[in-house]
Amino acid sequence: MTHALPKIAWIGLGIMGSPMSENLLKAGYDVTGHTLEQDKLDRLTAVGGTAAASVAEAVADADVIITMVPASPQVEAVAYGPAGILENARADALLIDMSSITPQTSVDLAAAARDKGIRVLDAPVSGGEAGAIEAVLSIMVGGDQADFDEARPLFEALGRTVVRCGPHGSGQTVKAANQLIVAVNIQACAEAVVFLEKSGVDLAAALDVLAGGLAGSTVLARKKDNFLRRDFRPGFRIDLHHKDMGIVTDAARTVGAALPVGAVVAQLVASLRAQGDGGLDHSALLRTVERLSGDRV
User: Fold this and answer.
1) Catalytic positions, please?
2) CB distance 248 to 262 below 8 Å
3) Which is nearest to 247 in space by CA: 174, 190, 187?
4) Which tens digit of pLDDT belongs to each residue from 207-222?
């Protein structure tokens, strides 16, 4: 006899949360969702999920609660307080926060939840909107091994690479490193694109051959069309990468790690946001290079 799948409460149905929750529905899980936009709740119910009017209602009889919200303040808003997760979830529920937040927020949340008998994993993801839709996300997890083992089938319905990185907060630390590498990589690609175009080279041909060599990367593969078409509809918004660069520069400072190139790219991301491009995809770092190169954007 097979055990029934755990009942899921999903809080936060944005660019990532909607397709991820739908992948759990496809895998046979019972998903009750709550989010601030009615159209996102309608999307969930249209594919067989259940909409809840509040966090408290969503989590009331859930075995596993998953949060996927923009940043630390939103995680704290849905977790704490009389209407929050910790006050309304069952004891022994498993809270999996898949948002990208500061490692310290994850550590503090795990401690507060322990007092309520609720177990916590921090499980941020990489792969963007496409990775969420295709269920090929990389999932980096912090928390206890037993809780990780229990959650693994669920993670495997959402992603391809699932790794426990250590105790509470470790997943967030690895995610911060991920965001550092991605931002620097996009910036390098953006500089190459402007250099190639100003040199009069066929950009599509150049990117194809670069992709096949040591310069090739997942970033280049995923963002090549964005660069070619100047299509900056968000898969991952500059606003969120700006937040993440703040997390990694702050955490690195705390542990005494120098991030000289990361600090420069963090400022380039900040400048892009100051130019009003915060709502664009992070491949729009290309616009900053164009501006610096004297092009009208």
Assistant:
1) 175
2) yes
3) 174
4) 999 999 999 999 999 9
